[in-house]
Amino acid sequence: MNRRQRRTTPTASTPGTEARPRANAPSGVDGAQPDEAARKASEPDGFADALALVGRQAPAVAAQERSRDAAPDRSGGLRPMSWASARTLAARAGLACPPRTRRVPLEESLGHLLADPLVAMGDLPPFDTSAMDGWAVAGPGPWAIGGGGSVLAGQSATVPLEDGSAVRIATGARIPPEATAVIRTEHARTDEGHRLLSTDRPTSPGQDIRPRGQECRSGDQLLPAASLVTPAVLGMAAAAGYDDLSIVMRPRAEVLILGDELLTEGLPHDGLIRDALGPLVGPWLTSLGAEVIGTRLLGDDADALYQAITTSEADLILTTGGTAAGPVDHVHPVLQKAGAELLIDSVAVRPGHPMLLAAWGLQGSRGRPRHLLGLPGNPLAAVSGLLSLAQPLLRGLIGLPLPAPYRASIRDPLSGHPYDTRLVPAVHREGQLVPLRYGGPAMLRGVVAADGLVVVPPGGVRSGELVELLDLPWTFGP
């Protein structure tokens, strides 16, 4: 099995680097398949309504959609929108919120994104240095060996070399004034009295000398903003003289698990089942770049849910279950009571269509806008919501757009829903994507073995057809 991955978000993960080859996106809107593009063009209601709300907070975000602006449907919420439109809207909702930034010591910046470009504060190297252990020489040889000792790294000043003379020098040491080259130790020859140095190789001016500013000059941009701080970046920043860096802070997320039927330990019994989403959602969000500040089991308690979402300090609240219209599905009425705006009220995707996205503070509030993502209660349906909406929203909150889609050919044909997008667990094998079994809404067995979820447009796909794959945020390999 060939498992390949490009990381798309920062954590101890990478954000945004694309390693795998991608086919060109087909014609359509926002990279959607042509048939979904047609559906998107014909559904101006939910997408335009929600984007209009986002646009009131950040008009530039919605400029392309203003011709479709319309008042929100206050009576029945927003109608289901296509999967491609929902992902686009989630990304734009995140991008409408300026990222929070902070200056931190160098050692605390690992895994974050740079809030500002990394600019050289001086020349690198800051002076001419020896690239090798050997001899610094002046002029053509042979060279007289002086008796002044060696030039070592860290010395602040050196005596100028006279023409025709040589002095021992260590790697990284400052080149003495008037020196013209460095002779490597293995290429140098001395006479019996160690008074005369020669070499049997041609010597050229500047040989084995790292000139001042060879790597960069003061003011050069070393990395653009939004670059991931890797161990190599830490080394570069330290070499450039940085003691701290301005980084983009991870969005804070809180997970609220709903359902009276859930157990947190032991085997299922008496109509009770184990909670699979409590252990899953928080770490998944961490893999997507969030700082998870808590996971709580609330049961089916509308008052507890209202209290939790109205007092949370999180930028993003995730609920599991309760997004449909059953007798204990409290998410919609609680959001209405809390004064939240519904941006997405169900998505035309299977599994996971009851997912929703709501927001506070989009219309002139002094506070920072906050979002709630309502995930379905079935495990794979919840995973669908994490990849469909949480990933683009979190990327937007740290200032990153949706990544370009990765596509590969599908080995086996897949049937499609008549109207909705399907997400099917799949794995890489011999250069193709192979669909996996156990892809029902309540199942996790398929996604456990998968490299990602294949995006199947309405109508299905044929064997050998190019399909989009949503990577799982931790899969990696050759």
Structural account:
20% of the residues lie in helices and 24% in strands. It is of the alpha/beta class. A hairpin with a 5-residue loop joins strand 10 (188-190) and strand 11. Helix 2 (44-57) runs parallel beside helix 3, helix 3 (83-95) packs parallel to helix 8 and helix 5 packs parallel to helix 8. The chain is elongated, with a radius of gyration of 30 Å.
Key features of this structure:
single chain; 478 residues; alpha/beta; 6-stranded mixed β-sheet; elongated
User: Count of helical segments?
Assistant: 9
**SSE-based structural type:** alpha/beta
In whole angstroms, how far apart are the ends? 10 Å
Beta-strand content? 15-25%
Q: What best-fitting shape do the alpha-carbon axes yield?
A: elongated
Summarize the SSE layout with pairings.
Blueprint lengths: L33 H8 L2 H14 L23 E2 H13 L5 E5 L7 E2 L3 E2 L9 E2 L3 E4 L5 E3 L19 E5 L11 E4 L3 E3 L5 E4 L9 E2 L10 E3 L7 H9 L4 E5 L3 E6 L4 E2 L9 E2 L2 H11 L3 E7 L4 H10 L4 E5 L10 H8 L2 E5 L1 E4 L5 E5 L9 E6 L3 H19 L8 E4 L11 E9 L2 E4 L9 H4 L3 E5 L9 E6 L7
Parallel strand pairs: 1-21, 7-8, 15-18, 15-19, 16-17, 19-23, 21-25
Antiparallel strand pairs: 2-14, 3-14, 4-13, 5-12, 6-8, 6-9, 7-11, 10-11, 20-22, 22-23, 24-28, 25-26, 25-27, 27-28
